[in-house]
Amino acid sequence: MIRELESQGVVSKTHSPFNSPIWPVRKPDGEWRLTVDYRALNEVTPPLSAAVPDMLELQYELESKAAKCPTICHGLIQAALEKGEAPEHLQYIDDIIVWGNTAAEVFEKGKKIIQILLEAGFAIKKSKVKGPAHEIQFLGIKWQDRRRQIPTEVINKITAMSPPTNKKETQAFLGAISFWRMHIPEYSQIVSPLYLVTRKKNDFHWGPEQQQAFAQIKQEIAHAVALGPVRTGPDVKNVLYSAAGNNGLSWSL
Q: Could you give the domains of the chain?
């Protein structure tokens, strides 16, 4: 990858007292992503808080029937879209989605946004543009019929996991499932035995209680229900379920 970029004139050899070490990372599709290792610089740099949208709030705004999701590779996208007076859209860092009542409407909105970004100097990979479609993945979540679902590949990955053998593996498993906790009734109570073995003051001991929790949460993930907007109106009845126990509290609507 480095030799190819050098032959194209993108990078060149140099001698300097300063160094920004590049670090090629293999992407899931087999291609390479060029990153820079700024860990040493970050240690001595005051943090700058960025106004990153809340993923949950964005998800509640996705109530479209058809959507198109171009994924862009570089920053300053928001400024370019505002300057170009882009049609209504949602953006999370470098992921963008538009929606509409018809496929034609979605196509035109997506076309306009792509045009704005290209004119601003951004490069857009054709394979990253999806839709218009009634089913699409955005922010790693499957969206269909105005509802959010756990993608099949995520379910398969989680259900194929073997029981952890140490604290680090347990934390990795909890990290993989915690993002989907909204889909699991009484999630906190189910996984509480798993959190017990990750505490610093506790030695790692995988017993029957942990194994039962491990198996149960995988089953819950495999059969998780889709979530949609809360319906309101005089003829709609919403029920709030709550539960309390020695291991925690939970509720669902």
A: 55-148 (3.30.70.270), 152-252 (no CATH)
